[in-house]
Amino acid sequence: MFIFGNLLLATAKILDIVLIIYLWIIIIRALLSWVNPDPHNPIVQFLYSVTEPVLNRIRLALPFSGMRIDFSPIVVILAIIFLQTFLVRSLAQFAAQLAQ
């Protein structure tokens, strides 16, 4: 059973790293919205293509869509923190119990 526990632990760690990377991508995207970046820059295009599907769904679901402030990055950041705190920790604790 320890092999399955190690597999779950590795999955939890990889998921945590992916969530951290996506968190920083969202933060960078939010900071870029304060300036007027070149839309033809490949880095800007990458950031927009990676974040826009998630942010657009949140924007459509938020009731304050008419406001000038975009709250969708804040919602995504809070969701990432929740996933790190709940899902990743739960997977890691479950994996530790299986490894015993």
What can you tell me about this protein's structure?
The chain contains three helices and no strands. It is mostly helical and 100 residues long. It has one domain (2-99). The model has no long low-confidence stretch (mean pLDDT 91).
Give structural attributes:
100 residues, mainly alpha, 79% helix
Ends distance = 9 Å
Number of strands: 0
Shape: elongated
The largest sheet, given as strand count, sense and whether it forms a barrel, is: none
Low-confidence stretches: none
Q: What is the helix tally?
A: 3
| Beta-strand proportion | under 5%
- Compute the CA-based radius of gyration: 17 Å
- Integer tally of domains: 1
Percent helix, as a range, is over 70%
In round numbers, the mean pLDDT is: 91
Structural class assignment: mainly alpha
Run of helices and strands: HHH
Strand and helix layout:
Blueprint: H1 2-32, H2 42-61, H3 72-99
Helix pairs in contact: 1-2, 1-3, 2-3
In short:
Helices cover 79% and strands 0% of the residues.
